[in-house]
Amino acid sequence: MIRRNDPIEALIDLMARLPGLGPRSARRVVLHLIRKRAQLLRPLADAIQAVADSAQECLNCGNVGTSKICDLCESESRANGMLCVVEEVSDLWAMERAAVFKGRYHVLGGTLSALDGVGPDELRIPRLIDRIDAENITEVVLALNATIDGQTTAHYIADQLEGRVALSSLAQGVPIGGELDYLDEGTITAAMNARKRF
Q: Are 167 and 198 in contact (CB under 8 A)?
């Protein structure tokens, strides 16, 4: 049996806090890592340390990378006047996996929620509005999750941007209550291609 304050138990406790892992799954993962120490545990520890030392949010869009401005914002080929607004970095990555959007992104960092005290200033909405003019944005695609908070946020942004840019939102394929990170690339592609005016 593992003693309290044991590093193995501490690792199990930390792993159990990860999404999708409970205490039993975390225990199995840690045991597997210990058995494959040379092939998995040491490289994983090195990779985690490297990410801890270098990961940062893009100052422009909120994506996660290893530089102050991410590759997507730096790419001149993506400066096509289109900006896709998503809730979280995981949603941006889901859109990129689908490889259907060729513009730039803006990560809000969540959704508006009166119950949780999250207003526009707690999100990157003011930065979004600043980017419209600075980057000559002509269309904003509101790719927010089809949840109540996601749609409330989309309507708020649409009100703020009304008359300044063309607004569209994802269409077919995104179920009500669905989150982009859980959708397959084909569903995201269909939703992007059939986007509608907001």
A: yes
